[in-house]
Amino acid sequence: MKIIHVVGARPNLMKIAPIIFECKKHGEMESLLIHTGQHYDDKMNGLFFRELGIPEPDINLGVGSASHAVQTAEIMKAFEPVVLKHRPDVVLVVGDVNSTVACGLVVVKLGVKLVHVEAGLRSFDRSMPEEINRVVTDSISDILFCTEQSGVDNLLHEGISKEKIHLVGHVMIDTLLRNLERARHSVILEELRGRGYLEGGNFAVLTLHRPSNVDDPVIFSRILDALEIIHQDMSILFPIHPRTCRNLATLGLDERIEGLSRLHLLEPLGYLDFLRLTSTAKIVLTDSGGIQEETTFLKIPCITLRENTERPITMEIGSNQVVGTDPEKIVQAYRRVISGKWRQMAVPPLWDGKAAERIVKILLQKYEKVNRISQNVLMT
Ligand code: UD1
């Protein structure tokens, strides 16, 4: 069975790692790793390959940053010849980034089977680029692997047949479990303490990169209003995404953020340093999807600075609360954490470190079945 794995952006890397490791255990599987080049900075990309032990990509399409249309189109143009040359049995895409949908479209038009890992998640907010990517990718996939029951329900509701859908748990949690002990040896906290960034015991971790939050000066300023209050109580560590960093300057918010003496801007962090921070923080504030899930697993209170989430299980049984960008609501949620009034937290079913194992087992079973049928056809 020849399988092409696709990655493009930072959040794809922790998802693909356990799948590649699992495939390697099966001699009958031949894997090829293709990187679209959507993310390219060492801190957004290379560092994660090294830390997670992901093999170097067999091919890097080197597409880089551009508008959504140009980036998607360039990935499609560069990926088509790769599929034609290598003729895989299946192509596996993960998550919801532009690379996911671009490669998915190429694959189905060439009649190759498409597998989507992290299928079925829906925010029901079509202004989010990722929501469009999710809906399109799911609608053209042949096998869909879900992380939570809501994903299965959404796909069935959209008319996707039951046989294609499998609830397998979360490959991102496979990676977290595999690396939690290593992350305890990261020295990031000691380094930050040395820089005077960790006055007092407690600290918050902040990440922000969604266009809806960081491209709009009014919304970004409202979030800063809340942070101004929170940082009076505890340090806020803010590893900053390149697009957010660029926007601070262009939106004229850089002086304001510099004025928040206990909010500390950091370069984007590697996987292990970031995990050390999130697993020891008092609270995490974020607009990321994956971090809502990682904090749920870690049982660290998470305040999501968005109006909705495509990962409802993190709110239903996990540590997440979606509060939007109203400063009052953010501060109220923060105060609930500080006063110990946060809800009970639980880990979702099947988030047990074995998702990749389940995925590869199902892929092999399906492939054997298809092979058996085609051999029977040849013999008759
Ligand atoms: C992308 C994904 C998003 C994911 C996020 C994680 C889409 C539509 N969005 O958003 O779902 O949560 O990755 O980071 O696919 N840049 C760099 N260096 C890099 C990569 C990007 O400086 O290595 C800067 C560039 O200025 C670029 C901007 O970040 O224009 C945005 O990058 P892009 O890949 O378009 O989207 P992200 O915001 O990273």
List keywords for this structure.
380 residues; alpha/beta; Rossmann fold; seven-stranded parallel beta sheet; six-stranded parallel beta sheet; 13 strands; 14% strand; binds uridine-diphosphate-N-acetylglucosamine
Describe this structure in words.
The protein has helices at residues 10-24, 46-52, 68-86, 98-109, 129-140, 149-157, 171-184, 188-194, 211-214, 217-230, 242-250, 254-258, 271-280, 289-298, 313-316, 327-338, 355-379; strands at 2-7, 30-35, 59-60, 90-94, 113-117, 143-146, 165-167, 203-207, 235-239, 263-266, 283-286, 302-304, 320-322. The protein has 380 residues and is of the alpha/beta class. The protein folds into 2 domains: 2-170 and 351-379, Glycogen Phosphorylase B (Rossmann fold, 3-Layer(aba) Sandwich), CATH 3.40.50; 187-338, Rossmann fold, CATH 3.40.50.2000. Helix 1 (10-24) links the parallel strand 1 (2-7) and strand 2. Bound molecules: uridine-diphosphate-N-acetylglucosamine. Residues 9-11, 38-41, 44-45, 65, 96-98, 129-130, 209, 241-243, 246 line the site of uridine-diphosphate-N-acetylglucosamine.
Order of helices and strands: EHEHEHEHEHEHEHHEHHEHHEHEHEHEHH
Fraction of residues in β-strands? 5-15%
List ligands, each type once.
uridine-diphosphate-N-acetylglucosamine
Give the C-level CATH assignment of the largest domain.
Alpha Beta
Give the CA-CA distance, first to last residue.
24 Å
Please state the second-level CATH architecture of the largest domain: 3-Layer(aba) Sandwich
CATH topology of the largest domain: Rossmann fold
User: In total, how many domains does the architecture comprise?
Assistant: 2
Specify the biggest β-sheet: 7 strands, parallel
Categorize the overall geometry: globular
Mean pLDDT: 96
Strand order of the largest sheet: 3-2-1-4-5-6-7
Count of runs of 4 or more consecutive helical residues: 17
Number of strands: 13
Q: Which stretches are low in confidence, meaning pLDDT under 50 for 5 or more residues running?
A: none
Structural class: alpha/beta
Please estimate the helix content. Answer: 40-55%
- CATH superfamily (homologous) name of the largest domain: Glycogen Phosphorylase B
